Amino acid sequence: FQHLEKSAVLQEARVFNETPINPRKCAHILTKILYLINQGEHLGVMEATESFFAMTKLFQSNDPTLRRMCYLTIKEMSSISEDVIIVTSSLTKDMTGKDDNYRGPAVRALCQITDSTMLQAIERYMKQAIVDKVPSVSSSALVSSLHLLKTSFDIVKRWVNEAQEAASSDNIMVQYHALGLLYHVRKNDRLAVNKMLSKFMRHGLKSPFAYCMMIRVASKLLEEEAGSHDSPLFDFIENCLRNKHEMVVYEAASAIVNLPSCTAKELAPAVSVLQLFCSSPKAALRYAAVRTLNKVAMKHPSAVTACNLDLENLVTDSNRSIATLAITTLLKTGSESSIDRLMKQISSFMSEISDEFKVVVVQAISALCQKYPRKHAVLMNFLFTMLREEGGFEYKRAIVDCIISIIEENSESKETGLSHLCEFIEDCEFTVLATRILHLLGQEGPKTNNPSKYIRFIYNRVVLEHEEVRAGAVSALAKFGAQNEDVLPSILVLLKRLFEFLNPLQVKEGFDATLSYMFMTVLEPLLGTPLPRYNAVLGSQKILPCYR
Ligand SMILES: *[C@@H]1O[C@H](CO)[C@@H](O)[C@H](O)[C@H]1NC(C)=O
Description:
The chain is mainly α. Helices cover 70% and strands 0% of the residues. The chain is built from 29 helices and no strands. It has helices at 6-12, 23-38, 45-56, 64-77, 88-95, 100-113, 116-130, 135-156, 160-167, 172-186, 190-203, 208-225, 232-240, 246-258, 264-277, 283-299, 301-304, 308-314, 320-333, 339-347, 355-371, 376-388, 393-409, 414-425, 431-444, 452-464, 467-483, 488-502, 511-527. Helix 4 (64-77) packs parallel to helix 6 and helix 22 (376-388) packs antiparallel against helix 23. It is extended and about 95 Å long. The relative contact order is 0.03. The chain binds 2-acetamido-2-deoxy-beta-D-glucopyranose. Residues 283-284, 287, 319-322 line the site of 2-acetamido-2-deoxy-beta-D-glucopyranose. Belongs to the COPG family. This is Coatomer subunit gamma-2. It is found in: Cytoplasmic vesicle, COPI-coated vesicle membrane; Golgi apparatus membrane. Pfam families: Adaptin_N.
């Protein structure tokens, strides 16, 4: 379908008018039209309406593939073509017809083109469809009703008796969809939701999907109640830890560990099932368990210590995401003596994991630094190595944030930290990070034993970078002069030289105007001689307020 031409495709759609209908050919053209729409191609109202009306003729064919393509086209075109209600009677016929394969999709297409006023006309059919014995029909009607709630709440509300009936279906999807509709009809009425939950908690459910949803609803109510978890809702969630479906067990465990203000006693059973999942042969379960334990470890490290042995086994997991999460969890729960070993292990595959997981590693290091100040050297080195390697903005920002917070809290790590950051801005593609580091250098650099070491790096930034970084660098240099008497004379020389270098450049606006302003107001009084006026920037309205 590459390089499809809209006009050519619409031309082809004339085939729809031919008799006898060629189902294969027509289905192929409909596919092309849907492809174009999904690629973002704009169809004008005229074009869309014309093809739509041509398409309606295809209902004469009984070819199942072609019919299903028609349903899809109706749904896609319902918002761009005019008079789509023309197909209402064809769809109603299919919806109530004998062919079960047509009925579900016809319900969905019909609900898509129906507005509140027309909905009353088909209400009777919808109620029947909801309780239909064919699961695909019932599910289609339930899910369509859910969508209709947005526009026709008061009408759909009248269908709860049918939805109740569907909720006791043996089919797991029908039960799930029915419960979804019932919940969304009632979700603004706390009492009704509570009643609904207790009813299903008493009778039990067949569908694991429905259980997962109930767990989410119950934990939402618990969160809103706040305070004690001594409630049937909590008991329900806890009971779900013993469900026979892993999906339900995980959902319950995840709900419990995410509840605010959970006690150690309440957490324990949830952590136990996550521990069991850690040794599951299914990667998805191991991943879910270790990812959740990682989160628990941030708030309750001691609750996760019991899983350390299982987590150790995951350190060598062939799935690197699982291994990373296991290591970073152990870093939070393990002892100081295990840090070096774990860091070595993780560095062996840092290059294989995505930025998202690298950020997880940085966050773990950040937490470690606060806990074990003696480990700074090892951890900082790790961060510096990561800083030199490839990575996107979020990842690099996490590293820089972490280094800066270490520097701010520990004076002994300041000099090495600043030097590495200087090196980083030599080749940094992220303006935000470069200006942040320059700001830090201006703040911390003048107080160090050897300020001139940093001045060279900063000076280079003015000469080599674009306006924003340049402005940050000039400002940092000025701070060195202001805070340190010894370097003031050389800073003045540098600033004067920079002024002569920068001003003849095509000074446009924004940052360079700000710079000129800075030079005139700061440097002139210091030098005691007026600087030459190169341009009319002074007095410009564009001077950034922060530099005034
Ligand atoms: C690890 O397992 C999870 C869960 O099954 C999966 O989504 C992910 O793609 C896997 N990652 C790798 C790197 O194999």
